[in-house]
Write a structure and sequence with these properties.
The chain has about 350 residues and is an alpha/beta fold. It contains twelve helices and 14 strands. The relative contact order is 0.16. The chain binds nicotinamide-adenine-dinucleotide. Nicotinamide-adenine-dinucleotide binds next to helix 4.
Length: about 350
């Protein structure tokens, strides 16, 4: 397996260094993997005047998986739109055809106080949101600004999904559910939107291929409510780009800690971009304060979805659980009585806890 490692900006390089230690441990355990680093985001702009330098895109295209830290920084905020760090990331996702975004939201027992919900509502939460990433109202044409007949300004976007786009993300949803608890909830707004009516029809058709998976449909407004009322009713949620954007942030925050949550964005061949859901945290960059666990857990997702070695992913997740049980805490998840450590020491603790069977 060839991995493109793109540390990016801010805390990106610090947390990526910890994830690379995990990759090296995986390699020592006899799994063939090699990696190469390249700049992206602000680092890409600094190195080559482009947030996605051609050499970086080429490396990503030639690799089986991409491991990305985070991009962005105050010093790049005034750049023209196309040169901003975030544009590099969007172009990378688009170029690699990463249409499915998997975001697990899991509450670790040791961190149950971090959630704003009551412990009895949230204990044991473990759900996965599968979000379509390359279609919907973010990409539909036409879109724009215009003046209407009375001279008033109007903004407009087009919500649009083709049958094939719905079908392929529905398959990812069902396959993800089949590998977990066999429960899939498809979220739409089929009482109002034509796009959602088609979405519901196609998802229902795809369900015939997965008789063991129990499918239900839910309107997005109800899903938003149910996620805070009783989030444990969900195992896997599949939804479009716009609804997924909002619901996945909501689900992530149920767990209370942004530094703990990984994500995977996959194309149809299983190639994936793996990254934490948080940004480059310029406020704490370079201070050995960042939590590297979301980044390390992104490597676990890589083992599951690109390497197709779920047992390796499980080993990495077990190591993270172990260091939490041993009370290691970076400042963002620190509580009284715990053992406060920096980025580097947390990475080392995970390596020490790592066991491959
Ligand atoms: P952020 O996620 O970077 O930070 C939000 C807060 O969470 C900050 O207080 C930060 O210190 C803290 N935080 C984030 N990750 C942490 C970690 N691993 N450990 C401990 N604390 C952590 O979001 P922001 O401040 O809105 O954005 C900062 C920059 O990141 C911006 O330039 C933004 O555009 C960019 N960004 C990039 C991505 C990405 O690369 N995928 C995602 C979101 C934001």
């Amino acid at each position: 397996m060839r991995i493109a490692v793109l540390p990016g900006d801010g805390i990106g390089p610090e947390i990526t260094a910890q994830a690379v230690k995990v990759l090296q441990a995986v390699a020592r355990a006899g799994v063939k993997c090699e990696y190469q680093q390249a700049p992206v985001g602000g680092a890409g702009y600094d190195a080559a005047g482009d947030p996605l330098p051609e050499a970086t895109l080429h490396l990503a295209e030639q690799s089986d998986a991409v491991l990305l830290g985070a991009v962005g920084g105050y010093q790049y905020d005034q750049l023209p739109r196309e040169q901003r760090p975030e544009r590099g990331l969007l172009r990378l996702r688009k170029s690699l055809g990463l249409f499915s975004n998997l975001r697990p939201a899991r509450l670790y027992a040791e961190l149950s106080d971090a959630s704003s919900l009551k412990a009895e509502v949230i204990a044991g939460l473990d759900l996965m949101i599968v979000r379509e990433l390359t279609g919907d109202v973010y990409f539909g044409q036409p879109r724009g600004l215009r003046r209407n007949d009375s001279g008033e300004r109007e903004g407009f976007d087009t919500m649009l999904y083709s049958e094939s786009e719905i079908r392929r993300i529905a398959h990812v949803g069902f396959q993800t559910a089949a590998a977990r608890g066999n429960k899939l909830c498809s979220v739409d707004k089929a009482n109002v939107l034509e796009t959602s009516m088609l979405w519901r029809e196609v998802v229902t058709e795809v369900a015939k291929d997965y008789p063991a998976v129990q499918l239900r449909h839910m309107y997005v407004d109800n899903a938003a409510m149910q996620l805070v009322r009783d989030p444990r009713q969900f195992d896997v949620i599949v939804t479009g780009n716009l609804f997924g954007d909002i619901l996945s942030d909501q689900a992530a925050m149920l767990t209370g800690s942004i530094g703990m949550l990984p994500s995977a964005s996959l194309n149809e061949f299983g190639k994936g971009l793996y990254e934490p859901i948080h940004g480059s945290a310029p406020d704490i960059a370079g201070k050995d304060l960042a939590n590297p666990l979301a980044m390390i857990l992104s490597v676990a997702l890589m083992m599951r979805y690109t390497f197709r070695r779920p047992e390796l992913g499980r080993s990495i997740e077990a190591a993270v659980e172990k260091v939490l049980a041993q009370s290691y805490r970076t400042p963002d998840i620190f509580e009284r009585g715990a053992r406060k450590v920096g980025t580097e020491e947390m990475g080392d603790a995970v390596i020490a806890a790592l066991r491959f069977n």
